[in-house]
Amino acid sequence: MKYIAPLFLFLAFLASGARAESVTARVVADDYYSVYVGNASGSSMTLVGGSGSALWMSQGAPFGFSAGAGDYLYVAAWDSASYGPPHMWIGEFNVGGTMLYSNTSDWVAKYDASLKDPSAAQVSALAQSAGAWLAVAANMPNGSAPYGWLIGSSPASMVWHDSFGGDSASERGYALYRTAMPVVAVPEPSVYLMFLAGLGLLGFAARRRV
């Protein structure tokens, strides 16, 4: 009996590697955005936040959601037809205590040339489309003119998928950004093997007690 409690705690520690992580996000886009959690292909995707009808001056309030093992973050950003370029976004994400920022190294992008304010199904379709995910090409530090400090003093960057102005390929549509890596790691197969072996030991110990 004295070995079962420590073993149970060890197994619980192993299992925690596959649990969901809490995420707190702050996002601003010129003009609008939506945030999704999904798998690498985009075939499974959940809407977790968005700007609604608020323009960039009224955005940036924190919002929370959960991300599971192997999940990626997706951000769709688009202009209002009434305001025109530039079409950018900036954000920071606290993923279980680890900070992730918008920048040119941790995100990749695709775009649609004709659609604004996409639905979750349309975002999923673009994520799964044949075109390759491309590097994010343009950025400015938080605090740069004409926007100023959009998210406090965060080291996040304002990013555009290809260019700052109205010559962007997505000017009449929207840009979709995805994290380059999962935001919650998938446990190694050896962890699962150890977990299963531990369950077997628990079962054996229980039978011995009987």
Describe this protein with a few key phrases.
210 residues; alpha+beta; six-stranded antiparallel beta sheet; 12 strands; 20% helix
Outline the structure in words:
- This protein is an alpha+beta fold.
- The chain folds into two domains: 1-18 and 188-210; 21-183, no CATH class.
- The chain is 20% helix and 33% strand.
- It is built from three helices and twelve strands.
- It has helices at residues 4-15, 120-128, 189-209, and strands at residues 21-30, 32-38, 45-50, 63-67, 72-78, 88-95, 98-101, 107-112, 134-135, 138-141, 157-160, 174-179.
- The strands form three sheets. A six-stranded antiparallel β-sheet has the order 3-2-5-12-8-9, with helices on one face. A four-stranded antiparallel β-sheet has the order 4-1-6-7, with no helix packed on it.
- β2 and β3 (45-50) form a beta hairpin.
- The longest helix has 21 residues, at 189-209.
- The chain starts with a helix and ends with a helix.
Task: Tell me the domain tally.
Answer: 2
Rg from alpha-carbon coordinates: 21 Å
Q: Strand count, sense and closure of the main sheet?
A: 6 strands, antiparallel
Structural category is alpha+beta
Coarse shape: globular
Major sheet strand order: 3-2-5-12-8-9
Order of helices and strands: HEEEEEEEEHEEEEH
Mean pLDDT: 85
Helix count?
Answer: 3
- Which spans of ≥5 residues are poorly predicted at pLDDT below 50? 3-16
Percentage of residues in strands = 25-35%
Number of strands: 12
* End-to-end separation: 11 Å
Helix content: 10-25%
